[in-house]
Amino acid sequence: MRTYPIPFNEEARLRSVFAVPGLTEANSGVFDAICDATRKILDCPIAHISVVEGETQWYKSVVGIALDRMSKNNSFCTHTIMSGKPMVVPDLSKDPRFETHPMVAEGGPGARFYAGVPLVLSSGHRFGSLCVLDLVPHEAPSDHQMSILTDLGKAVVAALEGVPPTPVDLTKDEGAKSTFITLIGHELRTPLTILFGSLRLLEAMADRGVNAGLISSARKSTEHLMGLVEAIITYSDASTGELSLNEQDCELDDILNGVAQLVLPGANGELKSIALDENAHTASIYIDPHHIKLALHALALNAINHGGSEITIGSRLDSARNLELSITDTGTLDDNIDLAALYEPFVVGGHIRTRDTRGGLGLGLPLTRKLVELHGGEFEVQATDKGTAAIVRLPAWRVGRLRIV
C-alpha cells in the first residue's frame, strides 16, 4: 500500500512545478550554500532541497550524504508539502507515521530527526522542502531557528523563480480569495441553516414509522453537510484549489453507525437501508471526520441509488494492519465495464446491468478517491461474486493510537 498522502490539488500543483524554468536537476553553488547554512543552524549533518513530483522525489541540492531520486514511499518531504507550516519530528521512530518507514526502521539508515519547511512558489503551490536530517533524536528547534529556516526556504524559491512576486500581486490574490470564501460561505450557510431547522421541527413532530425514519435521515445528512461546508470554508484555499485536513481522533464505530442509520429511497422509489456488519472492526482513528464521512456517504448513496437490495457497511484490518472500510451491495456490474473509468470525473463508467445510470457514478467516486488519497489511503471499486464492493483503505498509522503532536 502507498504510504504517503496526495494533495487535493495534485494535478494543478504538478503543472505549476513543471512550469518553473529553474527547477531542473542541474545544481548551482547558491543552493549548496543554503543547504550548508541550514544544517549548521539546526546542528545536523544532512540538509537538502527536495522536489516532490508525481511518483518520485529528487534533490536540487544535498549536503552531508549522497541521495538519488527515490520513490515517494521513502520520502518525508511528501508529508511536509501537505501544509504551509514547518514539519518537525524530534524522533521519527516514535512517530506513528514514520516508525515503519524504510529510512527509519531497522535495516535502513536509521533516520531519527527531521525538520523541514515547505517551499512555496509564487503560484501558491508547494513543490518540495528545505530540510535537515540527523541519525539521532533532537529537541524541537527554537522559534528563532525555524524562522531562519523559513527565510532560507524563501531564498530557495526566489533563486529558482528569478524575481519574487510583488506585494501588490499577493494582496490581489488574498483579496480575491477572501471574497470568494465570503460569498460561498453566505450562499451555502443560509439555506442549510433554514433546512436544518425545518427538519428538526419535523423530526420532533413526526410519529414513528417510515416518515420519521426519512426525516431523521434527511436531518442527519443536512447536519453532516453543514459541518462539511464549514470545514471546506475553513480549510480550503480558493487561490490554489487546495483542501487541507482538520485531523482529530475519532471513534470508528460512531462513523460507521452514522452511515448505517441512513434510510433513503433508491432510484426506483423503493426504501433502502444500510446494515452494519456485526464483525466490523472498531477503534480510535486519526482522520478528518468530515471528509471521511463525506466519502462514505457518497458511496452509501451510490449503493442506495444504483446498487442491489442489500447494502452493508463494514471495516477490517488487513495483514499489515491497514484499515479497510467497505460498502458492499448485491448489485452486479456488467462484465465489459472498465472499472478504471469509474474514477474519471463526470464519467458514468459504461453500461451497468442492474443499475440505473441516470446521475451515474459521476463525480462522487473521483471526489472520494481524492479525499482518501489526501489521508494517505487508497480507494477502489471491486466486482465480487456476491455483488459490488467500494473499499477505502487507510494507512495503519491512522488506527488505534493517540496521536501526533
Automatic annotation (TrEMBL):
<keyword id="KW-0808">Transferase</keyword>
<dbReference type="GO" id="GO:0016301">
    <property type="term" value="F:kinase activity"/>
</dbReference>
<protein>
    <recommendedName>
        <fullName>histidine kinase</fullName>
        <ecNumber>2.7.13.3</ecNumber>
    </recommendedName>
</protein>
<dbReference type="InterPro" id="IPR003661">
    <property type="entry name" value="HisK_dim/P_dom"/>
</dbReference>
<dbReference type="InterPro" id="IPR036097">
    <property type="entry name" value="HisK_dim/P_sf"/>
</dbReference>
<dbReference type="InterPro" id="IPR003594">
    <property type="entry name" value="HATPase_dom"/>
</dbReference>
<dbReference type="InterPro" id="IPR029016">
    <property type="entry name" value="GAF-like_dom_sf"/>
</dbReference>
<dbReference type="InterPro" id="IPR003018">
    <property type="entry name" value="GAF"/>
</dbReference>
<feature type="domain" description="Histidine kinase">
    <location>
        <begin position="183"/>
        <end position="398"/>
    </location>
</feature>
<dbReference type="InterPro" id="IPR036890">
    <property type="entry name" value="HATPase_C_sf"/>
</dbReference>
<keyword id="KW-0597">Phosphoprotein</keyword>
<dbReference type="InterPro" id="IPR005467">
    <property type="entry name" value="His_kinase_dom"/>
</dbReference>
<keyword id="KW-0418">Kinase</keyword>
<dbReference type="Pfam" id="PF02518">
    <property type="entry name" value="HATPase_c"/>
</dbReference>
<dbReference type="Pfam" id="PF00512">
    <property type="entry name" value="HisKA"/>
</dbReference>
<dbReference type="InterPro" id="IPR004358">
    <property type="entry name" value="Sig_transdc_His_kin-like_C"/>
</dbReference>
<dbReference type="Pfam" id="PF01590">
    <property type="entry name" value="GAF"/>
</dbReference>
